[in-house]
Write a structure and sequence with these properties.
By secondary structure, the chain is α+β, with helices and mostly antiparallel strands. It folds into two domains: 125 residues, no CATH class; 371 residues, Cytochrome P450 (Cytochrome p450). The strands form four sheets. A four-stranded mixed β-sheet has the order 1-2-8-5, with helices on both faces. A hairpin with a 2-residue loop joins strand 1 and strand 2. The longest helix has 39 residues. About 3% of the residues have low confidence. InterPro entries: Cyt_P450, Cyt_P450_CS, Cyt_P450_E_grp-I, Cyt_P450_sf, Cytochrome_P450_monoxygenase. This is Cytochrome P450.
């Protein structure tokens, strides 16, 4: 009997020891991790949601919705200029902190950005974290984005914009009684007033893709002309996949890449190589610059890391990924800015009148190329196509664009960097390897900087703006060494398209439009629609050349 009791005690002791060992190995480190980040870490004094002190789960849950930028904005309103959203993830919205993060210290991008690459191991100019690699890659591409070279691309941009306004003009002439012009188009229909209604958002996106095709890859994708193309949807799906990869890295194997985009890009490359073999002179554009840097001996693949010290040459996989990045970054950002500028102008008729007056003053043909009468505006040659050399100096046009980029920067969710050493920011000790995010959207809407009407669309605020504010508190294209390489190209495209649309057509927005913004790497309208009734401007009942 005594022996049986002794055995029971031994078993109990064994279970107790086993529990203690398990607790020590697993539970105790977790317990210490939570206690440290909640109460001991230098970041523990920074306010934020309770769970954010020891987990980024709240950020991860909100990213797939494309609405994390709104949550960050609301957190700043609740907690102030400095907010903690993860154990080592801090948001800053005050001017000096953002200036320090982006310009003065020029911190590198966080390694987590690798999650939005087409292939995790293959960095691009946008996703590079190594400064040497980024500098070398930027040196390869910079000739394609110099001011002189970008200016030489204007005829190609003009050709795509001309097709856009011709297409919209053809819609404006149609009616429900003669709908032939609208057949096979996903961009148009008719309103209850028997007026043609177009999806202006889609047409602008198509035009932006045609422009990047024409200027960067040697030929337009003819998306405006054909009226539909799978490319925009495929790009959106790829961006969503990358966001999921970035947010849930341990489940990356389940987020399979659609081979359609790779095949599409491979065809572009193959066609150019065949053309080069027959041509006496190579075309100089982004695609050719990438091909000129090709090194057949360089080994890299989706499963093999590249040598990040060598950004001077590119493997075939790197070229393909870099092209993918230009397709994504070179179209959605410009299209988003253009459509938001149009939306703001249509919701503020007095601002629209001011812009048209400036265009008419700068381009006398706007007043003279159309005669009155029943046959007015029947010729395509009457369509207005502005030159960029004149547009770039127009005060009100540039104020409209600046104000749009202030209210709706393409970096809505913030610009993330990572500290490389213990650093003091906004009087807080920020440990090494902490993600620090510059909340650009919140900075752009600071009442202390932009005045009490900060949420209003007021292009006039830019006329007498203190240059220091523009330099230190306005970041439409980022800053520092990571300033967007394509900003000059984007501004030329934006100026031309906005002016061509406003100078040729009268748009009346359809009621009940879904203008909800989402961001999957780049921002866009959730609905992918902005439907408007369209008429030729000088045929519109809303147009009076003497009063506008």
């Amino acid at each position: 009997m005594d022996r049986l009791i002794l055995n029971d005690d031994t078993d109990d002791n064994f279970l107790s020891d086993l529990f203690f060992i398990i607790f020590t190995i697993f539970a105790l480190p977790i317990f210490y991790y939570v206690i440290y980040h909640m109460y001991i870490s230098p970041l523990s004094k920074i306010p934020g949601p309770l769970f954010s002190s020891f987990t980024e789960i709240l950020v991860s849950l909100k990213r797939p919705e494309g609405r994390v930028f709104e949550w960050f904005y609301s957190l700043h309103l609740k907690y102030g200029n400095v907010v903690r959203v993860g154990p080592k993830f801090i948001l800053f919205d005050d001017l000096e902190a953002i200036k320090f993060i982006l310009k003065d210290s020029d911190m590198p991008k966080t390694p987590t950005i690798a999650g939005i690459r087409a292939h995790y191991n293959l960095p691009t100019i946008f996703t590079a974290t190594d400064k040497t690699f980024h500098r070398q890659r930027k040196r390869i591409l910079s000739p394609a984005f110099s001011i002189k070279y970008v200016a030489s691309l204007e005829p190609l941009i003009q050709s795509c914009v001309k097709l856009l306004i011709k297409k919209i003009d053809s819609f404006s002439k149609s009616s429900s009684k003669s709908p032939d012009l609208l057949l096979n188009s996903t961009s148009s229909q008719f309103s209850e007033n028997n007026l043609p209604t177009i999806n202006l958002y889609q047409l602008i996106q198509f035009c932006a893709l045609d422009i990047i095709g024409e200027t960067a890859f040697g030929r337009s994708f003819d998306m405006v002309e054909k009226g539909s193309h799978p490319l925009p949807i495929k790009i959106l799906e790829e961006m969503k996949r990358r966001v999921l990869n970035h947010t849930f890295p341990y489940f990356r194997m389940f987020f399979k890449k659609d081979p359609w985009l790779d095949e599409f890009i491979s065809k572009i490359i193959k066609t150019r190589i065949e053309e080069n073999s027959k041509a006496t002179k190579q075309r100089i554009d982004i695609l050719q610059i990438l091909l000129n840097s090709y090194n057949p001996l360089k080994q890299s693949s989706p499963t093999t890391p590249v040598d990040v010290t060598d950004g001077k040459t590119m493997s075939d996989f790197e070229i393909q990924d870099q092209i993918m990045e230009f397709l994504i970054g070179g179209t959605d950002t410009s299209a988003f800015t253009i459509i938001m500028a149009i939306i703001m102008l249509l919701h503020h008729p007095e601002k629209l009148r001011n812009l048209r007056l400036e265009l008419e003053s700068a381009f006398p043909e706007l007043q003279n190329h159309v005669t009155s009468g029943e046959h007015e505006c029947e010729h395509e040659d009457d369509l207005f196509l502005p030159t960029h050399d004149t547009l770039k100096s127009l005060k009100y046009l540039n104020a409209v664009i600046d104000e749009t980029l202030r209210l709706f920067p393409v970096t809505l969710g913030g610009i993330m960097r990572q500290t490389t050493e213990d650093t003091i920011i906004s009087n807080h000790l920020i440990p090494k390897d902490t993600i620090v995010s510059a909340s650009i959207w919140k900075l752009h809407r600071s009442k202390q900087i932009w005045d009490q009407d900060v949420d209003e669309f007021v292009p006039e605020r830019w006329f007498d703006l203190n240059p220091k504010i523009r330099n230190d508190a306005y970041y439409p294209f980022g800053s520092g060494s990571r300033l967007c390489i394509g900003n000059n190209f984007a501004l030329m495209e934006i100026r031309i398209i906005i002016s061509a649309l406003i100078g040729n057509f009268d748009f009346v927005p359809k009621e009940g439009a879904d203008l909800q913004i989402v961001q999957f790497i780049t921002p866009s309208l959730r609905s992918k629609k902005f439907e408007v009734e369209v008429t030729r401007l000088r045929e519109s009942k809303n147009y009076d050349i003497n009063n506008e």
